[in-house]
């Protein structure tokens, strides 16, 4: 990798600085219709509406307002529909989604590890499952064997993301060392991250296996990144704002709804629509 390019990149690429919050609610630049549709229903009240925010992380949660918004969004919609509650799903950067949920501007975030959102209220039932791997340029032969093996690598991380307890601690310890850590911000940073690895402006990028596979389907085979080994796996959740009075109730309603969807077989049908084996989410 051409290490001198790192400092040049930091000067030129404003998206690579961990900025992001504020902005109270509106966003979803990809699809304004996702914002307008639920709000246009005059019958909606705060008691019958849940607003969830996240950056696109397909197939777990995808572009708001698209034909396939992600299996976790579909599961949340159907689970809450059982108790007469509508889900409004909005895209924004992950750091901003966490910030707005923490402030109580939205009800919660979707696609969270417990380490992403300390202090948030989590359902007892996860809505998905994530397996994080390390990805490199396809010509690389480097393999991940623990954070010690990152010593001579530049790691690219997305602002606000949690990856694993060990890697999160490593990023925190070295976040002011641009030769070791680059932080990427923005509402949809995955394609930019892939580009930076492909152009050898950074060495290693942690990402969910299903998310990377989903994204790579849209790219020519010669531009696909290489897995350098597994990092961490964990259930993923819809997490609710600690500053919303309804948070505990919403967490319980979602857990009950997910259990009902699993019992009926509907949960498996939803995830299968996204090319995921239901056994992968157990």
From TrEMBL:
Specify whether Signal is a keyword of the entry: yes
Xref: SUPFAM superfamilies? Periplasmic binding protein-like II (SSF53850)
Instruction: Report keywords, A-Z.
Output: Signal
Q: Which residues form the signal peptide?
A: 1-19
Question: Which positions fall inside the Solute-binding protein family 3/N-terminal domain?
Answer: 52-275
Instruction: Give the similarity note.
Output: Belongs to the bacterial solute-binding protein 3 family.
Give the protein name, as stated in the record.
Answer: ABC transporter, periplasmic domain protein
């Amino acid at each position: 990798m051409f290490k001198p390019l790192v400092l040049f990149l930091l000067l030129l690429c404003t998206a690579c600085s961990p900025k992001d919050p504020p902005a109270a609610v509106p966003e979803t630049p990809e699809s304004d219709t996702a914002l307008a549709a639920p709000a246009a229903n005059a019958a909606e009240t705060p008691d019958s509406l849940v607003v969830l925010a996240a950056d696109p992380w397909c197939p777990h949660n995808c572009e708001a307002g698209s034909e396939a918004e992600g299996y976790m969004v579909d599961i949340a919609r159907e689970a809450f529909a059982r108790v007469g509650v509508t889900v409004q799903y909005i895209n924004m950067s992950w750091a901003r989604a966490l910030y707005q949920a923490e402030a109580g501007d939205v009800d919660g975030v979707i696609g969270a590890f417990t380490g992403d959102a300390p202090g948030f209220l989590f359902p007892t039932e996860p809505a998905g499952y994530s397996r994080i791997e390390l990805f490199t340029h396809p010509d690389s032969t480097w393999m991940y064997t623990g954070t010690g093996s990152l010593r001579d690598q530049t790691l690219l991380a997305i602002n606000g993301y949690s990856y694993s307890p060990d890697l999160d601690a490593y990023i925190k310890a070295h976040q002011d060392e641009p030769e070791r850590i680059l932080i990427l911000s923005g509402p949809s940073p995955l394609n930019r991250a892939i580009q930076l690895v492909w152009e050898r402006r950074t060495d290693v990028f942690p990402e969910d296996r299903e998310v990377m596979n989903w994204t790579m389907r849209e790219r020519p085979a010669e531009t696909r990144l290489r897995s350098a080994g597994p990092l961490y796996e964990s259930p993923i959740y819809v997490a609710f704002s600690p500053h919303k009075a309804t948070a505990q109730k919403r967490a319980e309603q979602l857990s009950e709804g997910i259990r009902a969807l699993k019992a009926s077989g509907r949960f498996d049908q939803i995830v299968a629509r996204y090319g995921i084996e239901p056994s992968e989410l157990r």
